[in-house]
Design goal:
Shape: elongated
Radius of gyration: 43 Å
Largest sheet: 9 strands, mixed
Membrane topology: Multi-pass membrane protein
CATH class of the largest domain: Mainly Alpha
Protein name: Cation-transporting P-type ATPase N-terminal domain-containing protein
CATH topology of the largest domain: Calcium-transporting ATPase, transmembrane domain
Helix content: 40-55%
GO molecular function, one term: P-type sodium:potassium-exchanging transporter activity
Family: Belongs to the cation transport ATPase (P-type) (TC 3.A.3) family. Type IIC subfamily.
Structural class: alpha+beta
Keywords: ATP-binding, Cell membrane, Ion transport, Membrane, Nucleotide-binding, Phosphoprotein, Potassium, Potassium transport, Translocase, Transmembrane, Transmembrane helix, Transport
Number of strands: 32
Strand content: 15-25%
Length: 1165
């Protein structure tokens, strides 16, 4: 990207983080019309439409830059881990291609490495970025058609054709097609909940609102003369002028923010990347170092390349990403059962490391359902419990008061019954009583059903009227009341009057009843008396003082307060034609004030407890809402986000959008950050009246301070912050498609308490991933050590690269995944969130535990078994060093210790090799020439252990005409001179042979250029060539110079090595038993934790059965180079497994007994 392009992008990002800078809504109408070239009656001319479109563009959202899917797919192969494995795979294929013997191992290894990369890349691709999906979500919200005025005519056009200056008519149910300044309105209300989080429909009129200080409110999101792109007209009608289109709308800004804020890598992704980079650097470094060492030792280049790949493969845990992915997927499945849908698997762990939850208020912390909270009547405030049904109401009303000491309403009060009556009659909300199967619900009967919930019963009408209706129903059936008092006339609520009136007939020939509901001050102004304690009294100063105090108290709690009044219309009859045009033909004053109801969107069940749980876990919960500061603070107190005590002592605060707006205007970045830091230093914070840009800034500044931020939301306005947060959590029920697309998780029940369940699961998955990685990494040392010893000590390789992959991608996989099923530890929600800088997924202590402690013990176990098995097949440990490079290419030539085969009387005959080497395997000269050149059998090593010949371990090795010792010569050698072919040059020089005998000896040993690969000479062995893999004797045992000699063939050597390698592989499985059990806990004893993880128990069986299958299945013997082990060789690793288990139990015991000791500090991972 060019510098200019980068600068432009940065400038756009900064601009997006500021509020939309509309000023047109503050202009005088004449200035507005002149600026855009329109009039309210005629709209724009066709010429001016073209002119404005050329200036402002089409009414479309700019799509983001989209990378083609195939480029995204290919990019998955460009990460460090993939490139490392791909490079290894290529080298394997190259090695196979140029290998004269076409070793299948290289081919298999290359295929496996490519397969691992392909599977990992495909999965990552499917989890790729969501920008296009988010934009599709925005597109689905964009209005299709609208009614505009052009050239004096009303025309229906596509919404994208609108330009600033267009005059648009708005009607009930319309979707607003652009940002529009209202110039004419008739009871116009708009649903802004998706933008601002305000639960109630908002009034819209040509006038700007005035705040409590008399100052005109000009901030666009709080202006009462603006309708915003994609919001819904809730009721009424109006006409306005388009002042913002396309990207220059509030919605355009949000769309830009959502696509501009690229999601950060999750914490777990960062941890894994760091670990892979570290382990890869170590692997490559070791591979290169030992490649050079191998070259200096004279090893062939191709062989060095193959073993360099082996070292890299042994270091890199190929199964790690698969293990992490499967573990996260299993946890996501478990979370789904707890009403949390996980879209991005890595988000599971991120939630566990969260330090800040920035939560939306409406619908997340609250029920998004207006509910009556308090009533004021008889000059006293009462609490109104929300009963689901009549039995439930009786139970919750039993105490008679709330825990805070507020009394419950008194149903026997005459004033309360009158208040219920007015609230029922002056109310247009109605229950929807038709069920899904088409039948009708009898609400009166259902209210006696303890399983019925009236609070969730759908209803028509605005939120406040529904709230009143749901309070009334458990107390007095609303249908019965309305049937008893039929409606005769009504005046609907409007923004001018701020009250609603209806007139109802009364039974028994009584005069009609007028009931009034509305803004308390407006209702009280129409009253001259009040009803309290069973009687009507005239208003006086004492009443008004009590009323004012209660009204302000309820309003200060963030509750919406409504006043109620009534009047019997004496002199009027039910058949009177009531009318309000041109003015009411009946009295609407001199009413009797009966009381107040206050409503609030109440907290969801379980939310206060969930927030308390977060506080205990040292997770800060911020409320971030577009609602009024008083309302926000009131709800925050109820759900334990803030406390009055902390507000009073200054450790909690309410930050308003105006404050943030002022901070963004500070040019000095240091001073601006200082303002943010001063606010974020508070323990408890409520953010109120904030815009989408503000919400994004809140998230960014928290992240700047090192916080891991979880963001919740359900509206379109939440999409940018959802995407920017370390984890975005959308609402499944109330959430818009855009917010769901931007989020990493979706709460299916829209309940904040489900987030806390997710935090718990996230912490658990981090613990279990740590345990899984500790288990997986421990086998790296026994995988790496064989290659290091092969290169440095030149012993035959104890483990092949293919068998390493069998461990990493086979036997270790299920046990590692089984860690995801481990139960949580008791203190999981009592400890603070992990510090991402210090409490790493893979830290030094874990590396020390896995590599330097358990890994070394495992490697020792593997080498012990390897040497034991080779010894059982005739190769003592003392003869291994230096002979590994040609082990599978040439036969060893050995001298023996002792003068005969020793019978141990245990069915075994043993011999002791004194020294072994490959003699003149590479020579092409005659016997005489070799003697002159000084080529002789190496005798550099001293034997120590035994080998078995006529024992079960030798039976079935195969590779030659015989598996038993074969006596080639008599004890005196050729012609009794003690000569054998290809043995001692000194013997040939000292022999007293006649010319004929020299000729016979030469003929006997073959005078043609001897070559131990069996292609040119027999070297005196009548049964076949020394190195012929097909027909040479398996163990040529003979006498020379008074001492026994032996020479097994190459197939025998290879078979014995494969048995030893298989035994090494099986020993890794055996010691991994103990490793799996000790990794179950980081501090507790296994005897406390128990073995209740059934999947882990299955994993122990699985890895054992898989190891046995690879051992004893012929096809796998061929593919993986394994052999069917003798049963005794399975048990050589058991003592080492017991040692690992005992060591770690002792370590944990010492840590528990001394929690702050050096063992805790250095080994608790």
């Amino acid at each position: 990207m060019s510098a200019a392009k980068a600068a432009a992008k940065a400038e756009r990002a900064a601009a997006l983080r500021k509020d939309v800078d509309f000023v047109e809504h503050t202009w005088a109408p004449e200035k507005l019309y002149a600026h855009f070239g329109c009039t309210l009656e005629d709209g724009l001319s066709n010429e001016r439409v073209l002119e404005n479109r050329a200036k402002y563009g089409e009414n479309r959202l700019t799509p983001p830059e989209v990378t083609p899917w195939y480029i995204k797919f290919l990019m998955q192969f460009a990460n460090f881990f993939a490139l490392l494995l791909l490079g290894g795979g290529v080298l394997c294929f190259v090695g196979y291609a140029i290998d004269s013997e076409k070793d299948q191992t290289n081919l298999y290894l290359g295929v496996v490495l490519f397969t691992v990369v392909m599977i990992t890349a495909t999965f990552s691709f499917l989890q790729e970025a969501k920008s296009e999906a988010i934009m599709e979500g925005f597109k689905s919200m964009i209005p299709k058609k609208c009614k505009a005025i052009r050239g004096g005519k009303a025309v229906v056009i596509d919404a994208w054709e609108l330009v600033p200056g267009d005059v648009v008519d708005l009607n009930d149910g319309d979707q607003v097609p652009a940002d529009i300044r209202v110039m004419r309105s008739n009871e116009l209300k708009v649903d802004n909940s998706s933008l601002t989080g305000e639960s109630e429909p908002q009034d819209r009129s040509p006038e700007l609102a005035v705040d409590s200080n008399g100052k005109i409110v000009t901030q666009p999101l709080e202006s009462t003369n603006l309708c915003f792109y994609t919001t819904i007209i809730n009721s009424g009608s109006g006409r306005g002028v388009v002042i913002g289109s396309g990207d220059r709308t509030v919605m355009g800004q949000i769309a830009g923010l959502a696509t501009e804020t690229s999601g950060e890598d999750s914490p777990i992704s960062k941890e894994i990347k760091k670990f892979i980079q570290l382990i890869s650097i170590v692997a490559i470094t070791l591979g290169i170092v030992f490649f050079v060492v191998g070259l200096t030792n004279g090893t062939a280049i191709i062989q060095n390349v193959v073993f360099m790949i082996g070292i890299i493969v042994a270091n890199v845990p190929e199964g790690l990403l698969a293990t992490v992915t499967v573990s996260l997927a299993l946890t996501a499945k478990r979370m789904h059962a707890k009403n949390v849908l996980v879209k991005n698997l890595e988000a599971v762990e991120t939630l566990g490391s969260t330090t800040v939850i920035a939560s939306d208020k409406t619908g997340t912390l609250t029920q998004n359902r207006m509910t009556v909270q308090h009533a004021w009547y008889d000059n006293k405030v009462y609490f109104c419990p929300a009963g689901k049904n009549i039995p439930d109401l009786k139970v919750i009303s039993e105490p008679g008061q709330t825990p805070d000491g507020e009394p419950f309403y008194d149903q026997s009060s005459e004033a309360f019954q009158r208040l219920l009556q007015v609230a029922t009659l002056c109310n247009n909300a109605e229950y929807l009583t038709k069920s899904e199967d088409g039948s009708f619900i009898d609400l009166k009967a259902e209210m006696m059903n303890p399983n019925f919930n009236i609070l969730k019963q759908p209803a028509t009408g605005d939120a406040s009227e529904q709230g009143l209706l749901k309070l009334v129903q458990p107390l007095n059936d609303a249908l019965d009341t309305r049937a008893k008092y039929p409606k005769l006339f009504e005046i609907k609520f409007n923004s001018t009057n701020k009250w609603q009136l209806s007139i109802h007939g009364q039974p028994g020939g009584r005069p009609p009843l007028l009931v009034l509901k509305g803004a308390p001050e407006r209702v009280l102004a129409k009253c001259t008396s009040y009803f309290a304690n069973g009687k009507t009294s005239s208003k006086d100063a004492e009443f008004e003082r009590t009323y004012t105090q209660s009204y302000e108290d309820l309003g200060g709690r963030g509750e919406r307060v409504l006043g109620f009044a009534f009047k019997e219309l004496s002199g009027f009859k039910n058949d009177f034609k009531f009318s309000q045009k041109p003015k009411p033909n009946f009295p609407i004053d001199d009413l009797t004030f009966v009381g107040l109801f206050s409503l609030i969107d109440p907290p969801r069940e379980g939310v206060p407890e969930a927030v308390t749980k977060c506080n205990r876990a040292r997770i800060k919960v911020y409320m971030v809402t577009g609602d009024h500061p008083i309302t926000a603070a009131a709800i925050a107190k109820q759900v334990n986000i803030v406390s009055q005590e902390n507000l009073d002592n200054g450790t909690a605060c309410v930050v308003k959008g105006d404050d943030i707006r002022a901070w963004t205007e500070i040019e000095d970045p240091v001073a601006q950050r200082a303002k943010w830091d001063a606010a974020l230093d508070h323990k408890q914070i409520v953010w109120a009246r904030v815009s989408p840009a503000h919400k994004l800034l809140i998230v960014e500044n928290c992240q700047r301070r090192g916080e891991i931020v979880a963001v919740t939301g359900d509206g379109v306005n939440d999409a940018p912050a959802l995407k920017k947060g370390d984890i975005g959590i959308a609402m499944g029920i109330a959430g818009k498609d855009v917010s769901k697309e931007a989020a990493d998780m979706i709460l299916m029940d829209d309940n904040f308490a489900s987030i806390v369940n997710g935090v718990e699961e996230g912490r658990l998955i981090f613990d279990n991933l740590k345990k899984s990685i500790a288990y997986t990494l421990s086998s790296n040392i026994p995988e790496i050590a064989p290659f290091l010893c092969y290169i440095t000590a030149k012993i035959p390789s104890p483990l092949t690269t293919v068998l390493i992959l069998c461990v990493d991608l086979g036997t270790d996989m299920v046990p590692a995944i089984s860690m995801a099923y481990e139960e949580k530890e008791a203190d999981i929600m009592d400890r603070p969130p992990r510090n991402a800088q210090t409490d790493r997924l893979v830290n030094f202590r874990l590396i020390s535990f896995a590599y330097l402690q358990i890994g070394i013990i495992q490697a020792l176990a593997g080498f012990f078994t390897y040497m034991l098995v080779l010894n059982d097949y005739g190769y003592t440990p003392s003869i291994l060093m230096g002979n590994g490079l040609k082990w599978t290419k040439n036969s060893l030539l050995c001298t023996l210790n002792g003068d005969s085969i020793v019978d141990t009387n245990q069915g075994r005959a043993i011999y002791r090799p004194k020294a072994c080497g490959f003699g003149c395997a590479d020579s092409t000269g005659t016997m005489a020439n070799m003697c002159k050149g000084g080529c002789a059998i190496p005798v550099d090593y001293v034997p120590s252990t035994t080998a078995n010949l006529a024992s079960p371990f030798l039976q079935g090795l195969g590779g030659g005409a015989s598996v038993d010792p074969f006596l080639e010569f008599d004890e005196n050698g050729f012609r009794g001179e003690g000569l054998t072919c290809g043995r001692s040059c000194a013997s040939l020089a000292s022999a007293t042979l006649s010319p004929a005998e020299q000729t016979a000896y030469t003929y006997f040993c073959d005078s043609t250029p001897p070559n131990l690969d069996g292609t040119t000479a027999g070297w005196g062995f009548s049964r076949g060539y020394v190195d012929d893999k097909a027909i040479a004797p398996a163990g040529a045992y003979y006498w020379w110079n008074g001492a026994p000699q032996t020479q097994p063939n190459v197939d025998y050597q290879t078979a014995a090595l494969e048995y030893a390698q298989t035994a090494y592989f099986i020993t890794i499985i055996i010691v991994q038993w103990a490793d799996l059990m000790i990794a179950k806990t980081r501090k507790l004893s296994i005897f406390e934790q128990g073995m209740g993880n059934d999947f882990m128990n299955f994993g122990l069986i699985f890895e054992t059965v898989l190891g046995a299958t690879l051992c004893y299945t012929p096809i796998f013997n061929k593919v993986f180079g394994t052999r069917p082990l003798h049963v005794l060789h399975w048990f050589s690793g058991v003592p080492w497994s017991i040692l690992i288990f005992t060591y770690d139990e002792l370590r944990k015991s010492l840590i528990r007994s001394n929690p702050k000791g050096w063992l805790d500090r250095w080994t608790y991972w």
